[in-house]
Write a structure and sequence with these properties.
Distance between the termini: 53 Å
Helix content: 40-55%
CATH superfamily of the domain at 4-171 and 288-314: NAD(P)-binding Rossmann-like Domain
Bound molecules: nicotinamide-adenine-dinucleotide, 6-O-phosphono-alpha-D-glucopyranose, manganese (II) ion
Structural class: alpha/beta
CATH class of the domain at 4-171 and 288-314: Alpha Beta
Largest sheet: 6 strands, parallel
């Protein structure tokens, strides 16, 4: 089995340590030769890197080398895989996005509504640059990208790099939801076989089977409605915000019983209620800064101070495991099935071919092979078309330097709708994003 040279771009991420634990757990299935960290923020990177160095010495002694750098050539030369998780503007800009949206009475969220638009316009520029850099040193490396808002990033990258067949955008939400299904059904999550369609953070499970072919869909719906729905992945199980989000997924199923919803649909189906519940002084960004980020930083500081990770509470999480299992399928042609983001090209028959859709695919060494879905029902199609038009307008606005399209995008977005609100939000976001967004005329 060929051992891989893996680069983690955005290695200062709050998810990096969980990912390193997952690499250790998956070492027999996805064996590594070298691991390289790359980040633009030296300090942020260094904490994770020093802790990882100690962790790998204890638990990955067979690794040939571990290094970290802010130099692109050093990082990307001869890479087999690059796992990308960058956040342009950091959590500080996320907080701005969320607060500005809430100031105008609309949902303040990382990837949905105006927050997603603002973040998308920041991410596109850095992601295009990063992919170009990676390609100039490693033309064949697999680039697996988590960077959000994944729908907008995927659309922009597919326009900029239409022929790049080794670039794949993924999201861990469908598999994180499936962990909760697995728990309710008392079946291992990797024995579940989902049918699913949609856009990123905007889709539905239509069927849940097991590997033997049994259909668990209706029993699962009954269980969710009767016993409730909770996050089960280690990273989010005890997070109050995620607990509320999963509870709301139960309500969505009651209101629209045909399919099982992605949790992110809550922002589009109950926008007023959700905006009203949020505290502008403590949006999700603040919760993450004081929660996940603090926890990870404290843990790393402790590992570095003790010179050992033995007493640390680092844990494997689905975020890491999912990306590694996808990489394993691409590297070793396992043809395992995962829900990932690909160009529609007829997969959902009644949606345009250039739409970036999130659907089940077999992952092979030739890339993702999606399963045909056919026509989707009018209600879901209508919702998707509105959201898709919003996403397309944001990416058009970026490439065409067209501010008017941002107003059109937010007018189409279900979290905004009102034109005056759309204009005011665009004005405030333009001001806050100077230096990050294109210089709109
Ligand atoms: P974070 O801010 O903690 O980490 C991001 C890191 O990227 C930082 O260390 C930052 O310095 C670095 N960075 C920023 N711009 C960079 C660039 N141009 N090149 C290299 N490094 C750069 O953020 P986080 O909360 O850990 O999230 C990381 C990313 O992963 C975000 O985009 C987040 O939305 C995304 N994410 C996606 C999914 C998914 O389902 N697709 C799941 C979880 C997280
Ligand atoms: C899920 C989503 C991601 C999102 C992450 C963290 O995993 O799929 O896209 O970035 O949650 O969200 P949070 O609000 O906890 O930072
Ligand atoms: Mn996601």
């Amino acid at each position: 089995m060929k051992k891989q040279r893996l680069v983690v771009a955005g290695s200062g991420s709050t998810y990096t340590m969980g990912m390193m634990m997952s690499l250790i757990e998956e070492k027999d299935n996805f064996p590594l030769q070298d691991v390289v960290f790359y980040d633009t923020d030296e300090q942020r990177q260094e904490r994770n890197a020093k802790a990882t160095e100690i962790l790998f010495k204890e638990r990955y002694p067979e690794l040939n080398s571990f290094s970290y750098t802010t130099n692109k050539e050093e990082a990307f030369k001869d890479a087999d895989f690059v796992f990308v998780q960058i956040r342009t503007g950091g959590l500080a800009m996320r907080e701005q996005d969320e607060q500005i949206s809430l100031k105008h009475g609309v949902v303040g969220q990382e990837t949905c509504g105006p927050g997603g638009m603002a973040y998308g316009l920041r991410s596109i520029k850095d992601m295009i640059e990063l992919v170009k850099d990676i390609r100039s040193y490693s033309s064949e490396a697999w680039i697996l990208n988590y960077t959000n808002p994944a729908a907008i990033v995927a659309d922009a990258l597919s326009r900029e790099f239409p022929d790049d067949s080794r670039l794949l955008n993924i999201c861990d939400m469908p598999i994180a939801i499936m962990i909760s299904y697995a728990k309710l059904l008392d079946i291992d999550v990797w024995d579940l076989v989902p049918e699913y369609f949609g856009l990123n953070h905007f889709g539905w499970f239509t069927k849940i089977y097991d590997k033997a072919g049994n259909d668990h869909t209706e029993r699962l719906k009954r269980l969710i409605i009767e016993t409730g729905f909770k996050p089960e992945d280690t990273e989010i199980a005890n997070d109050v915000s995620w607990q509320k989000t999963f509870e709301q997924a139960r309500q969505m199923l009651i209101d629209f019983p045909e399919f099982l919803p992605n949790t992110y649909l809550q922002y589009y189906l109950y926008p007023d209620e959700l905006a009203a519940k949020e505290d502008p002084n403590r949006t999700r960004a603040r919760q993450v800064i004081e929660g996940r980020q603090k926890r990870v930083h404290d843990t790393c500081d402790q590992i570095i101070a003790e010179g050992s990770a033995e007493n640390s509470d680092l844990h494997v999480d689905i975020h890491g495991v999912f990306m590694i299992k996808a990489a394993e399928a691409l590297a070793y042609n396992t043809a395992e099935r995962f829900i990932v983001i690909v160009k529609n090209n007829g997969v959902i028959a009644n949606l345009p071919s250039d739409t970036m859709v999130e659907v089940p695919c077999t992952l092979t060494s030739q890339g993702p092979k999606p399963y045909a879905i056919g026509d989707i029902p009018t209600f879901n199609k209508g919702l998707i078309e509105g959201q898709r038009a919003y996403e397309k307008l944001v990416v058009d606005a970026y490439f065409e330097n067209n501010k008017q399209k941002l107003v059109e995008a937010l007018t189409l977005n279900r979290t905004v709708v009102n034109v005056n609100k759309a204009k005011n939000i665009v004005g405030d976001l333009l001001e806050a994003n100077k230096g990050y967004w294109p210089d709109f005329q």
